[in-house]
Structure prediction request, 303 residues.
Amino acid sequence: MEYYSLNNYLQDTFGEKVYKIALNGGFTCPNRDGTLGTGGCIFCSDAGSGEFSGRAEESITAQIEKGKERVKQKMKDGKYIAYFQAFTNTYAPVQRLRELYEEAVSHPDIAALSIATRPDCLPKEVIALLGEMNKRKPVWVELGLQTIHEKTARYIRRGYSLPVYDEAVRKLKETGVQVIVHVILGLPGETKEDMKETVSYVGASGADGIKLQLLHVMRGTDLEKEYREGKCRVMSMEEYVCLVAECIALLPERMVIHRMTGDGDKKNLIAPKWSMDKKRVLNALRKAIQEKERNERRLSCDK
Prediction:
């Protein structure tokens, strides 16, 4: 397959299988603590998209060891990525961030640090800290962009404008930190062309990687209310698979595809239920991408 998968990138970079361990640093979000709002984005769960992360009351070291234990049947010896996942993981005093990041990068089995955050939560002292950590072990910053369209951004209560994203990417790249961008496909009111425009923009923005995330309707979110009132819909598997294949074709050849779908906590997932069969979805995605590549090569030969 011609797209650059995360597994291929990890093998090229580290020379072995590497697993992510999702961590909870006990953060909150400016969209929840009253700085920007209190309800969060309309799709965000009470766990701050960290349903599979550790427990905030445990130390980072303890969370890493428990994460290793969970995957020991797949990998007894190897390296791991410390993934600060829940809520906004640069939204704290820089000294607190230093303590948490330091504990993670100091662990001998951690090969890289991945930090999920918002573009508007990267003041200069935090970017300096990220650059410092990057000199010790690779640092990835995962930015929750979701869409480039301002109307949708207001609807989902994202809380910042597109130029804020552009500036964050520029500053992070200046420090040598890798940038991974989260995009949600299927946001209410967006057309297929809208979504492809977002993906194309990310591809041209200087980002190193992308996460394509299927819109999930999770229990307890404001999006659930919208969905139950019939104000938004979710895509069928066939729609989603075809869209992802088209989106990947728009990206630069060496952009790392970190995700093509996503996991929702099954006990709290309202829709789409087909997304729970991850193996089936991934197989369909790979088949669709291969078919699109074959068709494009055929068209090229016919010219």
